[in-house]
Model the fold of this input.
Amino acid sequence: MIYRNILQELTSWRNSKHRKPLIIRGARQTGKTTVVRELGKTYAQFIYLNLERKEDAALFQSFPNFAHLVSSIFFHKDKNPQNEDTLIFIDEIQEVPEAINLLRYFYEDVPQYHVIAAGSLLETILTENITMPVGRVQFMVLRPLSFDEYLGAMGEHAALEQYHKTPMDDFAHSKLLELFHNYTLIGGMPEMVSHYAENRNLTALTPIYESLLLAYMNDVEKYARNHTMVQVIRHVMKSMGPETGNRIKFEKFGHSNYGSREVGEAMRIMEKAMLLSLIYPCTSTSLPVFADKKKSPRLQLLDTGLLNYLAGIQKEILGSPTLEHAFQGKLAEHIVGQELLAKRYGMMSELHFWTRERKDAEAEVDFVHVEDTYLIPVEVKSGATGRLRSLHQFMETAPHHTAVRFYSGPIHRDSLTTPSGKVFQLLSLPYYLAGRISAYIKNQ
Done:
């Protein structure tokens, strides 16, 4: 069993007086079923319904009223309806779209039972008759394993202890950097990590990557409106590896003849499946963050391990002592972005970068991070601090004095001055501490 940080969030949900039925979103194979089963062990009764199974789906397809449905669930699963310490898990709920509407009645009519649903591409199946019961449900998002979850799965308990120590000890740096290098190579998909933890064989992961990508392709193709759209989705799936980390144009994406409309539609389907993210820039150095959808987005994939496989750069990473130059430096940026998102479980969580596009002085900062009431610029790069030109431009107008850089070196703090004379603090952190950015900013 790989321990997941989200179990703490699920426990809080369980104990909340304001609990509502919970929908867990996430790409296939990110471990949604596993974490809910683990939570189920803490209940007196756990009822598992998989709507890909005909016998479970039938319960939601023909019933005279909601009370009859609830009675049928307990009867067919041989559970006691008088025991209120019960978790009902409705898996693959997208297979019976009408079941989504019914979640509101679990909240209104039988709030004593705890209900979790999970599924993929839920937005795609919403129609005039099938709507999300807004205000009657809660949402959480499950992403690939974070670095600390990877350390736990690999049995690296001393490294995990140092990771959570603020600040960590200097002597732990080289080992954590090496472990993070391996994590970046393998990625955070639970099946990959579990297999590698048991066998320590990178070559054996290849057929697992192939099987996973085929499953993703088959999954999203079901929601294509015609055969042409299926072909566009396949093209985007095969082409997105080399394009990851770049600011992209939909028109002729991946050296194709497909138009902006077709590629945009394909990417939106894949974004709903949570296989990729389109990261849009903002232009302000203070809150709130407004994504500028008129500007070109940057492409981010679900998982760095999948990126490595799709882009064919696994051997390049193995032969590189650091992440700084792998995949033209885009790999380090990608894994930092993945870590920044890993423990954000809200549906509205997303990444942004900052840009200023002027004819005389263009500037771009890799990410922006919200900390309290401030928007913190985040760069991912090696090299001397004096070469962070875009970071300096961001800080010129920022209403605070903190910037962050992720690189391969140790924890370090510098006092820098912008061209106009503003003094600010640059917090340099090793890549592997991206998931702990808030703790280190607060510890300055």
Remarks:
- The chain has a mean pLDDT of 93.
- Residues 227-243 form the longest helix (17 residues).
- The chain has three domains: 6-141, 147-278+293-342, 353-442.
